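hey m, so remember when u said the tokens were messed up on ur end? i reran from scratch. heres the input so u can diff it against urs
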Amino acid sequence: MKQVCLVTGVGPGTGRAIVERFSDGYQVAMIARNAERLAALEESTPNTTAYPCDVTDFDQLRKIVAKVTDELGAPSVVVHNAVGGAFGDFLSIDPEVLNSNFQVNTMALLHLAQAVAPAMIERGEGAILCTANTAAYRGIANFSGFAPTKAAQRILAESMARHLGPKGIHVGFVAIDAVIDLAWTRKRFADQPDEFFCKPQDIAGEVWHLAHQPKSAWTFDVMIRPAGEKW
């Protein structure tokens, strides 16, 4: 029986790439709000199952994890890729924007981890990974509705890592310092060369690597950026 990988935030970019990477070897449970997109991906990608869900509906999220466990098995790898983001300085943003993003980025991680970790602890192995960005490390002026929630997500993940590591569960945080290669980003940055963009499949490859690191050399903080990125 194949091990199970659960991925939240399965959209057309990084989420899809992670699903496709893990579908070669795992049974992948896909979570996102867009049921139509998930159904299409399930049809085109072997070893995948769609579970439409809003990760901020925490009751529903826990029920979906239970359903995945019942139908496929307890997840061995969980990737929290769902993200809430917004631009704006602290004077202009609606406070509810910050709260909404906090629910997606931080609270959903908490509920998800609480749902999957007990079975991992019982087995003595597993991986819980977050995809993120450098907003988690720096409060850029125009990111005030977003950066605080990613910083909180990272600190929560670090707390989880310190608790779960000795129990055999690897928690990792993958920060992407780049413009991800998508149709809309290509259009927006049409004057940029190919090497300006970070490829979703390459991000997925690093997530795969992180999920399969040996216990003697685990990484918590991972920073991904294309060679041409200024930092």
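this time it looks ok to me. The beta strands are 3-8, 26-32, 48-52, 75-80, 126-132, 169-176, 179-180, 197-198, 221-224. if urs says something different then somethings off w ur setup not the seq
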